Amino acid sequence: MAQPIYVFDAYGTLFDVHAAIARHRAAAGPDADRFSDTWRQKQLEYTWTLTLAGRYVEFWALTERALDFAFGRFPSVNRSLKPQLLDAYFTLDAFADAKAALARLKQAGHKTAILSNGSPKMLAAAVTGSALDGVLDAVLSVDVLRFYKPRPEVYALVTAHFACAPDEVMFVSSNRWDVMGAVAVGFRGLWVNRANNPDEYADFAPIRTVADLAALPI
């Protein structure tokens, strides 16, 4: 079998979804972490509910709507921070281990890509801002399909782009539900369990679980 193609989820896997609040933690106050958790939770929830309802709203709009919900849930966080938080989210920081992990894979001869719910503009800004351009062969967005993961058609973007079989893909995500979706279509799943969460989706197990990207198998 050919060397696997390594395909990464973007938000939470390569890019730190809590980096936006981290840049403004002092201004956000004591509810900063819970605020950020809620922002992320609602962002994901909106992708799932809209997809189930057969509707599509672009990911950046959902990110803003989720942020508005978080402000409503935590009134201690000043709404005047909204423009700064959105600006920070548009250019999220990559995790410290992301670029080195991608570089190691490229040096070993693997193709690498992103498959993300993010819009093309969001992904381009994050990839460029984190200087990951040179270690990625493709950046694929659900925007061309107009629905979100874990629909099987989303993962098929990878096999179509690389003209490969599903079992040639090593799909890497910090989101266990995302790994489930990838394994369900025949990808080899690799779960980056940064938060040391308990496992779930036992019928769709990853081939390996690692604590961070530095521990990726080559």
Give a description of the structure.
The chain is an alpha/beta fold and 218 residues long. It folds into two domains: 5-16 and 92-215, Rossmann fold (3-Layer(aba) Sandwich), CATH 3.40.50.1000; 19-90, DNA polymerase, domain 1 (Orthogonal Bundle). The protein contains nine helices and six strands. It has a six-stranded parallel beta sheet with strand order 3-2-1-4-5-6, sandwiched between helices. α7 (120-129) links the parallel β2 and β3. α3 packs across α4. The longest helix is centred in the N-terminal third of the chain and has 21 residues, at 32-52. The radius of gyration is 17 Å and the shape is globular. The chain starts with a strand and ends in an 8-residue tail after the last strand. The model has no long low-confidence stretch (mean pLDDT 97).
Note the main attributes of this structure:
218 residues; 43% helix; DNA polymerase, domain 1; six-stranded parallel β-sheet; Rossmann fold; alpha/beta
Task: Write a brief structural summary.
This protein is α/β, with parallel strands linked by helices and 218 residues long. The chain is built from 9 helices and 6 strands; from the N terminus they run βααααααβαβαβαββ. The protein folds into 2 domains: 5-16 and 92-215, Rossmann fold (3-Layer(aba) Sandwich), CATH 3.40.50.1000; 19-90, Putative phosphatase, domain 2 (DNA polymerase, domain 1).
Give the mean pLDDT: 97
Shape type = globular
- The number of distinct helices, counting runs of at least 4 residues, comes to 9
H/E element string? Answer: EHHHHHHEHEHEHEE
Specify the CATH class of the largest domain.
Answer: Alpha Beta
The count of DSSP E runs of length 2 or more, i.e. the number of strands, is 6
**Cα gyration radius (Å):** 17 Å
Helix percent band? 40-55%
Instruction: Characterize the largest beta sheet: strand count, sense, and whether it forms a barrel.
Output: 6 strands, parallel
Strand content: 5-15%
- Order the strands across the largest sheet as they lie in space: 3-2-1-4-5-6
State the end-to-end distance: 14 Å
CATH superfamily of the largest domain: HAD superfamily/HAD-like
**How is the CATH topology of the largest domain named?**
Rossmann fold
Low-confidence stretches: none
State the secondary-structure class: alpha/beta
CATH architecture assignment of the largest domain: 3-Layer(aba) Sandwich
